[in-house]
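Hypothesis: this fold can be encoded by more than one sequence.
Test: take the structure tokens below, design a sequence, compare later.
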């Protein structure tokens, strides 16, 4: 079956009405690899690693543009605080007055990327639809971009379970997906009398 037939079959089954055949390249066959998390505590006795999957769906570029627009709309209408780098956190901390009378609670979302399920992403998109108009085609593009293929030595590997849904590190729209989910998580703290930032 050709790539064109495969994409047409997918669109027929998923209800896509838009055509990207002339605008999106075939997914490149690139080997996955791991990096060691040598900065983690107890690394010598319990080494952990991060899976990097360079086989990226080109539809992720389209999803990234859509998610950028959605996240900008949310940030424009809500006063959520999400930092994009360490420097932004340090600058924020330096600007706080009377630090000695404040208390901080620090919590870590372990394995943020892989913990994003399709259900959580759908709930985040439902939340985002209050701030931006998201079409069904755009929603399908965002979800479809999370269908990942894992390749090593030209062999395709399959995840445990029956789903190919995965928010992978290094994907075109992975960071924007995390930002959307982060906005949704921050919205869940609205009834608490604490200033939560991510």
């Amino acid at each position: 079956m050709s790539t064109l037939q495969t994409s047409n079959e997918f669109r027929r089954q998923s209800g896509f009405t838009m055509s990207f055949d002339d605008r999106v390249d075939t997914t490149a066959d690139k080997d996955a690899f791991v990096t060691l998390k040598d900065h983690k505590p107890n690394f010598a006795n319990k080494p952990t690693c991060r899976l990097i999957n360079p086989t990226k769906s080109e539809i992720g570029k389209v999803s990234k543009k859509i998610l950028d627009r959605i996240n900008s709309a949310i940030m424009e209408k809500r006063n959520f605080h999400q930092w994009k780098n360490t420097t932004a956190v340090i600058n924020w901390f330096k600007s706080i007055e009377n630090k000695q009378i404040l208390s901080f609670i620090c919590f870590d979302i372990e394995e943020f990327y892989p913990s994003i399920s399709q259900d959580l992403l759908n709930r985040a998109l439902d939340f985002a639809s209050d701030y931006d108009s998201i079409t069904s085609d755009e929603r399908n593009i965002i979800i479809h971009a999370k269908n990942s293929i894992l390749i090593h030595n030209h062999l395709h590997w399959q995840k445990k379970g029956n789903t190919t849904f995965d928010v992978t590190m290094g994907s075109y729209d992975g960071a924007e997906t995390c930002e959307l989910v982060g906005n949704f998580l921050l919205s869940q703290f609205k009834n608490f009398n604490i200033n939560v930032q991510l």
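The beta strands are 33-36, 49-52, 150-152, 155-157. The first strand starts at residue 33 and ends at 36.
Hypothesis status: open.
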